[in-house]
């Protein structure tokens, strides 16, 4: 079995199906989600400045089988490499004035193990009841009886979604793309 950090070379690339076109300009709703830091986070009260909220389907655990056909689902594979990339770029994002949160439909207990194992310096939020995904009409897919959020990244400023990265591919380059976008905004360039 390959490592969760390894991405197969033949991963199918997701296509932009327009499922996130409605998000730019949307105000973040006041929804409280459990965090790996042991607190609830009100998504609508994140404060001023930049917030990066990267949403991903689900991370795996070493030694556990992935869902059936996981590598064949466009955009499914790569959640662990994406989390590690945001970890590795966390200092750059902070220097650009951005705070980072991850979000999936997995339970906080599951996420907490992953965050500890991967040494994530940011909180991961649980949308296990799909309250947030439903409120924002986020794109989802189903596999093995689970409804999961498709991979996307919301760039939020002062409580409003300013930009959406969707689809996100390859997932291990997502954080670098966010850093580049934020740097472009800081210099006045239009990314």
Roughly how much helix do the residues carry, as a percent range?
Answer: 10-25%
Shape: globular
Put simply, the count of helices is 5
- Give the SSE order as H and E letters: EEEHHEHEHEEEEH
The strand count comes to: 9
Low-confidence stretches: none
Structural class estimated from helices and strands? alpha+beta
Summarize the structure.
The chain is 25% helix and 23% strand. With 191 residues, the chain is an alpha+beta fold.
Account of the protein in words:
The chain is globular. The longest helix is centred in the C-terminal third of the chain and has 14 residues, at 174-187. It has helices spanning 79-88, 90-95, 108-118, 131-136, 174-187; strands at residues 32-35, 40-42, 50-55, 98-104, 123-126, 140-143, 146-149, 152-157, 160-165. It is α+β, with helices and mostly antiparallel strands and 191 residues long. Helices cover 25% and strands 23% of the residues. The model has no long low-confidence stretch (mean pLDDT 93). The chain contains five helices and nine strands, in the order βββααβαβαββββα.
What descriptors fit this protein?
25% helix; 5 helices; seven-stranded mixed beta sheet; alpha+beta; 191 residues
Topology, please?
Blueprint (H helix, E strand, L loop, with lengths): L31 E4 L4 E3 L7 E6 L23 H10 L1 H6 L2 E7 L3 H11 L4 E4 L4 H6 L3 E4 L2 E4 L2 E6 L2 E6 L8 H14 L4
Parallel strand pairs: 3-4, 4-5
Antiparallel strand pairs: 1-2, 1-5, 3-8, 6-7, 8-9
